[in-house]
Amino acid sequence: MAVPVPHEFVHRPMTEDILITSWQRMGHDHFSVIAQWPHNHPYFTPNHGRHHPILAGETIRQAGLLVSHTEFAVPLGYHFILDDIVYTTDPEHRVTGSGPTPVTIDVVCSQTRMRAGALACGNFGMTLRTGGRVVVTGQSHVSVTSPAVYRRIRGERITARPVPGPLPAPVPAELTGSADERDVLLSPTGRPGQWLLRVAPDHPTVVNPANDHVPGLSLLDAAQQAARALTGSASFVPYAFATEFHRYAEHGLPCLIEARRRASAIPGTTTVRVTGVQDGAPVFTSTLTSFAPLP
Residue 66 and which of 18, 125, 199, 231 are 20 to 30 A apart at CA? Predict the structure, then answer.
């Protein structure tokens, strides 16, 4: 198995969560990144022959962080604000073999703005291939802040950490596509299409103990879990996933997750819009589309 890159480059404290193994510059704003998709990861577990639907988004996130630090001179310890992440996967792609799936990522950076010789913001467009076949296309836009600026943005919230204590009751794991109850990110509210975000404070993959807010990965997965729970279909696996982040999701405050079906522009598909709201203000908006036929 290839050795992953240092955890500081992808903001992942646990080695088993690091997907990227190497990279090289191909041009001024063009890079090639190599990753591996695990088959036996406790959280990113393949289900019914498909990779975890959030794995593509996490790969895009890690590749963008890596290139920012190594090729655009962003110092370690600086903070990244993920504005959005959008990707489309090949719905026919399936897990094959017994070992990790090698992934080649073509990264093209655009709309870059530099400050004091380091990236201040930019867009990362990515094409992911396995065996020469395109399996994901996507992009994300990020902004970068220094520790001093981040302290001003966050104020007293900068010292917030996951709150220990008992978790609320989960939605049944089979409704969310989760491998284990511990991975379920939704708790029932008793209202159709509405749940409360449920995050185990010591979850090794979903929670970074150093973060002063709920990670974006948690919100992405909560969105796809909500879409599955709303449709009541284990076959709802999003091939198109678009998320816009409006503000940080704070530790210790209830975050309402709401899912509603939306008219789909493509025949034979189902679209679900998921929103997260905290203290009456929007946290994120996700739009997920699946080819799965639903009753």
Answer: 199
More confident call, 79 vs 48: 79
Scanning the chain, the segments in alpha helix (DSSP H) are: 7-10, 55-71, 147-154, 173-176, 216-231
Distance CA 84, CA 216 (A): 10
pLDDT single digits (tens) 201-222 = 889 899 888 899 999 999 999 9
Indicate the burial class of 284 (C-beta count within 10 angstroms; 0-12, 13-18, 19 or more).
buried
Q: List, as one string, the DSSP characters of 40-100.
A: S-SSS--BTTB--TTHHHHHHHHHHHHHHHHHS-PPTT-EEEEEEEEEEE-TT----SSSP
Residue 153 carries which side chain, given as an amino acid letter?
I
- Residue 245 burial (CB < 10 Å; 0-12/13-18/19+)? buried
The answer to whether 155 and 212 have CB atoms below 8 angstroms apart is no
97, 103 Cβ separation under 8 angstroms: no
Phi, psi of 182 (to 5 degrees): -65, -25
The pLDDT score that the predictor gives to residue 294 is: 45
Q: How far is CA 183 from the centre of its chain?
A: 14
pLDDT exceeding 70 applies to what percent of the chain? 98
277-295 tens-digit pLDDT: 999 999 999 999 998 554 4
Distance of alpha carbon 22 from alpha carbon 64, whole angstroms: 13
Please report the sign of the dihedral spanned by the C-alpha atoms of residue 94, residue 98, residue 104, residue 105. positive
Contact 110, 47 (CB under 8 A): no
Closest by CA position to 249, among listed 287, 202, 295, 206: 206
- What per-residue confidence (pLDDT) applies to 139? 97
Query: Between the CA of residue 223 and those of 164, 197, 260, 274, what are the distances in Å?
Result: 23, 10, 11, 6
Q: What angle do CA 282, 286, 287 make, to 5 degrees?
A: 140
